[in-house]
Structures are given as C-alpha cells and as structure tokens.
Specification:
Length: 258
C-alpha cells in the first residue's frame, strides 16, 4: 500500500509516521508513505497558499490551484489508480469498517490535509473522491486525522504486524470491543490477574476472552452491540458463551446495587 499525504507541515507528519511500528514497516518496504509540501506548488514568491474567502468572514481559505498542482503531480506519477480523500469534519465518520473497505479496494491513496477556515470547494469538487472525519469535532488541521487514517490502514498490510490476528482480534474488527489484557506481575496493588489466564487451558482462555469482549461491548457501547449479528454464532457453544456474558453482566449489576 502507498499513501501520499498533501500537507503544509510535512515535518510534523514525518516525525510521527517515521517512528515505531509504522516507521519500521516503511524502512522494510512493507508500506510507502510520502509527504508533499503544498507550498512547493505555488506560483508566487511568497509561497502563499491561502486568501480571503469570497462573501466575507474571518480567516482564510486554502486556494484551489496549489492544491491542484500538488495533487496533479502525484496522480501523473502514479502507475495505478489513486483514490483521493480529504480529511474534513463534513465527511463520513472513519471507522474500522471504513478502513477495511479502503484497504480492500485501493492500493494507493492521497490524503489531503486542510487548514485555516477550509479548502476552496472547487478543488474538492474536481479532485476529491470522498471526505472522511474522525468524529464530531474540529481540529486546527488535517494532519492528525491523516496520520490516524494512514496508521490504521498500514497496520493491515502484510509484514507490518507479526501476524493477521494482531489486528483481527482487536476492538471494532468484528463489531465488538477487545477483551481486557494483563501482563506480569500476577498481583499488582492487590489486583490479581484472572485465574483462567494462568490456567494454560487454551479453550477456556478463548472462551473467557470472547465473553469479556461481549460484556465490555454491551456495557460500554450498547450502540455497537445492537448492530452485532448474533446469527453469525453458528454453534451451540458460541451461543452459550454469549448467554454466559449476559448472565454475568446481570449478576454484576445486582451485586453493585447491594
């Protein structure tokens, strides 16, 4: 997978995307992440990329032409189709399911980072395929959302993580939240690791993790669990684990009320 990020602050993006797991994956060639300074594509000595908005109002708007020139340079050099995404609070909400969709459909993405009061709509109309938002809030620029999207997509690429289960067993992959995790020591501040995790019984551990995933989702994100398709539980054992999760939640709630 290759991701090109159009930004006014490439150093900030590189500082983050060049570190840790994603940084090592880039170094080893598992993914390609390129940053492009939008100012390099201006035609004025001041390298100005913004101007006052038509119709009045405070702030400035990023001009269409520098954005277009940068975008065109990337597209013209690409050997494969490119899907262009503008990070915007007006876009559809980015989720793990959206990430799976993008990763499955596109080998190459352009992520456009806006700034100031926004981006000239004409660039969006002509060059952008879709807009994505991290949620119902506003940031000062598109760099943080772009890095979040790039990180989420790249960790699914072969070789980035040790094995597929590293991301398929995490929160949101199958519509559920991930189960709790524990490490050494066995007792910390009088809090003990659940005995089942020390048992060495892989089947019981798997059941406990699935049950805790159900419980955590039902308790913390009932909206997510409402969309969970229980018909996917095809065995009697799987349905039993879900029922145990419901029973334990009820019992825990009753204990809290006492």
């Amino acid at each position: 997978m290759r991701i090109d990020i159009m930004t006014l602050f490439p150093d900030a993006v590189e500082a983050m995307m060049g570190q840790s797991i994603i940084g090592r994956a880039r170094d080893r060639g598992h993914v390609t992440i390129m940053t492009h300074q939008i100012r390099d594509y201006t035609t004025n000595k001041q390298m100005q990329v913004d101007d006052y908005p038509y119709g009045g109002g405070r702030g400035a708007v990023m001009q269409a032409d520098p954005l277009y020139r940068c975008w065109k340079h990337i597209v013209d050099e690409a050997a494969e189709p490119v899907h262009t995404v503008f990070l915007s609070p007006c876009g559809r909400t980015f989720t793990q399911q959206v990430a799976k969709e993008l990763y499955g459909q596109y080998e190459r993405l352009i992520l456009v980072c806006g700034h100031y009061e926004g981006v000239d709509q004409r660039f969006i109309d002509e060059c952008v395929d879709e807009e994505l938002s991290l949620g119902d809030f506003v940031l000062t620029g598109g760099e943080i959302p772009a890095m979040a999207v790039a990180d989420c997509l790249c960790r699914m690429a072969p070789g980035v993580l040790p094995e597929e289960s590293c991301y398929t067993e995490e929160s949101h992959w199958d519509g559920l939240l991930e189960y709790p995790q524990y490490s050494r020591p066995e007792v910390w501040h009088d809090r003990a690791v659940p005995e089942v995790l020390l048992s060495g019984h892989h089947g019981n551990v798997a059941d406990w993790r699935k049950k805790e995933s159900y419980k955590r989702t039902m308790l913390r994100r009932p909206d997510l669990f409402a969309r969970f398709d229980e018909s996917k539980l095809t065995t009697k054992h799987d349905r039993k684990v879900l029922e145990q999760a419901r029973e334990e939640l009820i019992a825990e709630a009753e204990d809290t009320e006492k």
